[in-house]
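Consider the following assembly input.
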Amino acid sequence: MKKIQMVDLKSQYQKIKPEIDVAIQEVIDSTAFIKGSAVKNFEKEFADYLGVKHVIACGNGTDALQIALMALGLERGDEVITTSFTFIATAEVIALLGLTPVLVDVEMDTYNISVEAVEKAITSKTKAIIPVHLFGQAANMDDLVVLAKKHQLSLIEDTAQGIGGDYYSNSGQTIKLGTMGDIGTTSFFPSKNLGCYGDGGALFTNNDEIAHKIRIIANHGMETRYYHDLVGVNSRLDSIQAAILRVKLPHLDEYSNARRKAAHYYDQAFLNHPNIKIPYRSKKSKHIFHQYTLLIKDANRDELREYLGIKNIPAMIYYPVPLHLQKAYLNERYVDGDFPVTEYLASNVLSLPMHTELTDIELSYIKEAILAFFK
Ligand SMILES: *Cc1c(COP(=O)(O)O)cnc(C)c1O
C-alpha cells in the first residue's frame, strides 16, 4: 500500500495527464498567458455547470471574497456577519477593507452559521452576511435568504469548500451551492474539490450590474483601458490554470461521487461508535465532503491523532482555534466562552484523509486503526 495522504493530487493527475499536458502546451504555444480564450471559455462552461448567469474568474478564493465585498459598495464601519468556525480568509477580507467582522456561533449538526445567531447579531450597521458551506455541507440558505431580504442585507456565499454541491430549496428546486446569494465565491486552490495547479478563484452572480462591477474591480477598476472609474485590484486567473480547470470541470461530479463513496465507507465504519460522531447528512443538501470530519466524544482527540500519525495515517484539525479567539481578531467584542459550539468543535473535531483516489485497502486500514485506538 502506498503512503496514505490527506489529499492525493498526484494519482488524480495521472488519470487525466494526457489531456492536461496538451491543454497546458496549447496555452504556451499560443502565448496568450493572460486573459486568453481559455479563461473566457472556462467562465462560460463553469456558468453553465452552476446554472448561473455570470462567472468571473480571479486570482484566488480570498480575492474573490474581497472583490465581492468591494462590488457591494460597503463603507468603512459597516458590519459583516460571518461564522467563527471557518478558514481565516472569510473574516480577513472584511477586516482588510476597514469593515467590521461580526462573528457568530455555528449549529451543532452542520457546523455552519446559525441563522438564529445571525439574526441576534444584526444591528443598524449590518450590511452583509457571509455563510460558508463548511467541509462541503450547505449552510441553511433558505432561511438566510429570507433573513437577508427581511433586513435588506447582501448575501455572499463562501463556496470554497462547497463547489459542486446541491441545495434542495424549500421551493422544490435543486440549486448549486454558491448561486442563491447575491454573489458566490470559490477557490481553485489545488486541494479544493475543483482545484487547479496553482492559485485561482471565481465569483458568480445572476445580477448583471454586480457582474459588471466585479469585472471592473478585478481589473484595476477600469472598463476602458487606462481610465479608472473605481478603485480596483489586479486579480486574474492565468490562462494555464483556466485550461487545466476546463479539463477538470467535466470530472467534478465524478470527483464529488468518489468523495461521497469514501464518506459512506467511513460512515458505515463508525456508525453508532460510542466515541465517534460521524458527519451529519442534511436532507436539504448533497454533502460533497471537502473534508470528512469526525467529532471525537469522551476521548482524547489529540492522542488519537498522534496514534494515527504513528500508523502513517494523516489526520488534520480544521480548525484548532476559532476566529474570535485568534490574536488578530480578538477584541473587546469577544471573550473565551462566547461561542460554545464553535469552541467545542475546535477542541474535538478530526478530519480524516479525503480525496478522489482513496482505495478500499486504504479506507479499511484507516478504519481498523481508528477502531483499534478505542479498544
Ligand atoms: C480555501 C478557502 C478560502 C480561500 O481560498 P484561497 O484560494 O486559498 O485564497 C476561503 N474560504 C474558505 C472557506 C476556504 O476554505
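The two ends are 24 Å apart (CA to CA). Ask yourself how this observation constrains the way the partners meet.
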